[in-house]
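Researcher: I need the complex structure. Ligand is adenosine-5'-diphosphate. Inputs:
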Amino acid sequence: MKYEFKETLLYVENLSVAYDDTVIIKDINLIEKDVVRENVDCTGQVVAFLGRSGRGKSTFFKALTGLIPSTAGKILIRDFENKEPNAAKPVKEGDIGLVDQKYTLFRHKTVTEALKFSLRKTTLAASEKDSKIKQYLKEWGLENCAHKYPNELSGGQRQRTAIIEQLFSSDQFIVLDEPFSGLDVGNIQEVKKAFDLLGQSSEVNTVIFSTHDIDLAIELAQTIYIIGYPTIDGKLQNYGTIVAKYDLREMGLAWRDYCEDHLKLSKEIIHQMMIS
Ligand SMILES: Nc1ncnc2c1ncn2[C@@H]1O[C@H](COP(=O)(O)OP(=O)(O)O)[C@@H](O)[C@H]1O
Ligand SMILES: [Mg+2]
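Model: Output:
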């Protein structure tokens, strides 16, 4: 399957985060680029983070979205307002939307009101906002939820609203912390559909998510990172970092139906997670 790497969208260098004196994650380095595929209009990027509990995935996501400060390192994202090739800017809160596991929504706003609120910083006219909201509600199967409050929505509907909300306020990037946890089979299909929609709605859209489900990560992502404790000089450390990276495109496993090779990768990932 032919593809090409284009501009850098996300650049993380030597990132560390500590709570008080306890280092939680350290020396995280990664680069994610826009990928363009031959004969495919709109690809989007999907990046998955796997790792055992407590290794620092949520901490990393909070630092990545500017919700907590880092103790060292830098995070740059593509500056889409600057037309220069590869123009980048340091990330700040609000640039990258984070959908947490609870899909927190405004209790006193209807779906339409909440979405209007997340478009407040855009330059769209009121009528354009209305039609954008209508369009998304339709595409995401939320038409009959337009005037409902969060407590009137199902878990899946809440989550989709939270995703659209973050998309509206942050555009190109969206980070989801364990979006599949605690969902039933039907809801999992819905979130998968949401991933597809995200990829199709803009070429540069990048979805970053964490999960405990290795097979889902393999099915959805083109890049998989394992966050775990590194072993240095034979000794297991107690801070999280990227201990392995799998580029499924390079491995010929991206954008394909599940086969024997995916199973092999799944076994390798389990092993990598067990030792870190
Ligand atoms: N606000 C906090 N203050 C102190 N320690 C924290 C805080 N949040 C998380 N931790 C610790 O950081 C480590 C990583 O947690 P977390 O990022 O939630 O991991 P994961 O998402 O991979 O399960 C854990 O040991 C956790 O107890
Ligand atoms: Mg977590």
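Model: Summary of the prediction. Residues 3-274 form a domain with the Rossmann fold fold (CATH 3.40.50.300).
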